[in-house]
Write a structure and sequence with these properties.
With 448 residues, the protein is α+β, with helices and mostly antiparallel strands. The chain is built from 18 helices and 16 strands.
């Protein structure tokens, strides 16, 4: 009996065609914009010592307690596939001896992450993130610039009208202590109405109750104290400076006092870019300031701030907005007869040298090769028959218009540029090359 074909593991999926183009486009745009802001790209291992994430995310967090892919390797070491990358970047800063010189470090990253959770649209067990971190900057301007970079990326992707920046402050240590006490007092008075999970968090980490998604908890959270009433003067001043800088960067925002981070080393700015275009899971980019994580990795006190964004969710926004990047339109090179194949190879490589996507069918009659050219979305075809080659010519066919012309091989680039159907980047390159190599417009020459 035939075996069923193998499928991707649950919670994973293949990136093919338009989905891959969106995915790739998100990363490339983010990489380009981050570079403009002075970020350098780092690549940390996909798996780390489990302690990196147990320290970085906290033993009581859902990620550590329920979602990490952890295993013992053959050497008896506890290894974890990274569920996020901020902890890995901080570990890399310490491991590579970069905590004392050239701070702040501005880091961009992109790559796969892994969490064992219920798969749903835009959320997978292997997913991908882009992110930036500014390591070693204590000033509120750093917070605002990090957010501005994220906003710039969304603008460049064309999805900014579908997202909204929400910000809050977590205050300094004194602010958080006062706020924690107020939350404990409030939720203790409603203990029996809390979910079982939130009752367990009440003494250990009451801030995490504010972020609970349980409907029973949400009703109580709506009337809970906010941190604004417990900010020290210094913390309030820091928050005011972040908002003032955001206005200077022309980043629109709204305040949301319910954005929190449960771990003690988070402080001051917390923010999320949210959307209503992806259903209940509306956060597409989120981050904040963390002033103690590098210390958790064994380094010195290093104030830092950053964000991470899900590539899958940004890709879904591209799809919803109708902004899927088009597939490149190749030029199909079609030799007629074996004798023309060597010439076809020369033409192929010449086109590729000039930045033109070019393909050749490996076999088949001219009819079959033309059918393949249409299937792959070619914009033009270069047909090389024995008669044309003997005369130093080729036929250039515009596959959109259905028109064709016989041109001398030295004029092949010009003829392809004039079709207007090659890939836009190659089109610009061709036009530039033609301007440099061929000089004046031929119409001007004819008029002369």
């Amino acid at each position: 009996m035939a075996q069923a074909p193998l499928q991707p593991a649950r919670g994973t999926h293949d990136l093919i065609g338009a989905e891959f183009r969106r995915h790739h486009h998100v990363i490339e745009v983010a990489r380009r914009i981050a570079t403009l802001y002075g970020f350098e790209e780092w690549a940390t291992p996909i798996f780390e010592d489990t302690r990196v994430f147990a320290r970085g995310l906290g033993d009581t967090s859902d990620v550590v307690s329920k979602e990490m892919y952890s295993f013992e390797d053959r050497g008896g070491e506890s290894i974890t596939l990274r569920p996020e990358n901020t902890a890995g970047v901080c570990r890399a800063l310490v491991s590579n001896g970069l905590t004392q010189a050239n701070l702040p470090r501005k880091v961009f990253y992109a790559g796969p992450m892994f969490r064992y959770e219920r798969p749903q649209k835009g959320r997978y067990r292997q997913f991908h993130q882009i992110g930036i971190e500014v390591l070693g900057a204590a000033e509120p301007l750093a917070d605002a610039e990090v957010i501005a970079c994220g906003w710039h990326i969304q603008q460049e992707l064309g999805i900014d009208e579908g997202t909204v920046l929400e910000i809050n402050t977590l205050g300094d240590a004194a602010s958080r202590d006062a706020y924690r006490a107020a939350l404990i007092a409030y939720f203790t008075g409603h203990r029996e109405q809390l979910s079982e999970e939130s009752r367990a968090r009440l003494e250990k980490n009451p801030l995490r109750i504010v972020d609970s998604k349980d409907p029973k908890d949400r009703a109580l959270v709506a009337a809970a104290p906010t941190i604004q009433d417990h900010l020290t003067a210094e913390a309030a001043g820091f928050y005011a400076a972040v908002k003032r800088h955001l206005e200077a960067f022309e980043v629109p925002f709204r305040e949301n006092p319910r954005i929190v981070r449960g771990l003690d080393y988070y402080s001051h700015t917390a923010f999320e870019f949210v959307t209503d275009r992806l259903g209940a899971q509306g956060t597409v980019m989120g981050g904040g300031r963390y002033n103690g994580l590098v210390e958790e990795m064994g380094g010195p006190a290093t104030p830092s701030v950053g964000w991470a964004a899900g590539v899958e969710r940004l890709s879904l926004l591209l799809e919803a907005t109708g902004l899927t990047p088009p597939a490149p339109r190749p030029v199909a090179v079609i030799p007629v007869g074996e004798a023309a194949e060597a010439a076809a190879i020369d033409v192929l490589q010449s086109l590729r040298d000039y930045g033109v996507v070019a393909e050749i069918a490996y076999r088949g009659t001219m009819k079959r090769r033309m059918e393949r050219a249409n299937r792959i979305g070619a914009g033009a075809a270069v047909i090389l028959g024995e008669e044309e080659l003997a005369a130093g010519m080729a036929v250039v066919r515009n596959l959109d218009a259905g028109s064709q012309e016989r041109v001398a091989l030295p004029d092949l680039l010009r003829a392809l540029a004039e079709t207007g159907v090659v890939e836009s980047a190659a089109q610009a390159m061709l036009n530039s090359i033609l301007e440099e190599e061929l000089g004046d417009d031929p119409e001007d020459e004819g008029a002369a």
